[in-house]
Amino acid sequence: MDFASILSSEITKKRKEAPSTSITTPAEAPAPAKKYLKRSELEAQRQAEYAARQQELAEQRAQKAAEKRRAEEEAARKREEAREKQRRLAEERRLREEELGGKKKDDDEGNREEGAGAQEEMTDEEAIAKLRELGQPAKLFGESTAGRVKRCKRAIAAREAAIDPLDSPLPLISEEEMRVDIANVNKDPELVYRQLDAWFRLVMKEWKTALDERPMAVKESFQGRKAADAMQQAEEYMKPLFRHFKHRDLKANVFEKVCEIVVEAQARRYVKANDVYLKLSIGNAAWPIGVTMVGIHERSAREKLHENQKDGAAHIMSDEVTRKFLQSIKRCLSFCQTRWPPEDPLQLMG
């Protein structure tokens, strides 16, 4: 056979096999993806999602309702248990009170005896008079005599505790007797305490009077209000000092220096008084300025830095109360040189 006959036979065979192998049924072919969707299909899809969401919310609401119902049942059970416990405790308390009835009667009798003892110490008339003097109600509704006496004693104790040192001065002395003599510091300290108390009270009184006599425009100005605040602050800070004067328990070194300050101020030597104040507040000890320890060798006179603290005492200005009334003393000196100016202008503080 030649080539042409072989080729034609092969082509014929292929044509017969091609329809059976290439043709597929519609069921076997995959469905083509839609490129566009209808509005009805989109609406159906949205409604299906909405229905699923509503069903989920309904399930959540049902679950929350069940939890709330269980919580209410638990709370009701606890309330019932609490009421039962209260009833049981009330019953036990009633039984206990019945058992202790006799003891309470004995206690009442003891209280009446105690009230009678208090009444013997202070009569009802004395308590009423003292309460009226203190500005308290003389009688209260349902108050017994013993209770009134106790209330009177409490009012007296509260008044004594609230007494201001500025309102309870030491016995007054004249201006001539206010002159402090430095020789009396050790001889007659009680007299010196009285003189210091009277002199500082005189200074505070003059200071307050000078501020009150200012014109209204000056009082309402910024500087005027600042000066009034400084005076009030100094008056408040001086209260511990007046307590020391009253109880005569000022420290020895502070007492001596304060006496020197007052002596110089009364002589109108304010520069010297300021020097004594500086010596009291700062002292003449060496101050560590800069580097105090470099290397292994000590610097010269380094031992003087802490020579005043060999006894373990702290600096006098480290005490807050002492620092405040010392600063108030300095403010009093500043006022004194304006109220009683010195004859020598060189004695004015800067």
UniProtKB/TrEMBL annotation:
The biased composition feature labelled Polar residues covers 1-10
Tell me where it resides.
Nucleus
Biased amino acid composition, Low complexity: 19-33
GO cellular component terms, alphabetically, are: U2-type post-spliceosomal complex; U4/U6 x U5 tri-snRNP complex; U5 snRNP
The Pre-mRNA processing factor 4 (PRP4)-like domain, residue ranges: 128-151
Species source reads Sphaerosporella brunnea
Q: Which domain of life is it from?
A: Eukaryota
Q: Give the family from UniProt.
A: Belongs to the PRP18 family.
Single GO BP term: generation of catalytic spliceosome for second transesterification step
For the keyword Acyltransferase, the answer is no
- Positions of region (Disordered): 1-124
Give every Prp18 domain span: 199-341
Task: Please state what the protein is called.
Answer: Pre-mRNA-splicing factor 18
Matching Gene3D superfamilies, A to Z? Functional domain of the splicing factor Prp18, Pre-mRNA processing factor 4 domain
Locations of Basic and acidic residues compositional bias?
56-115
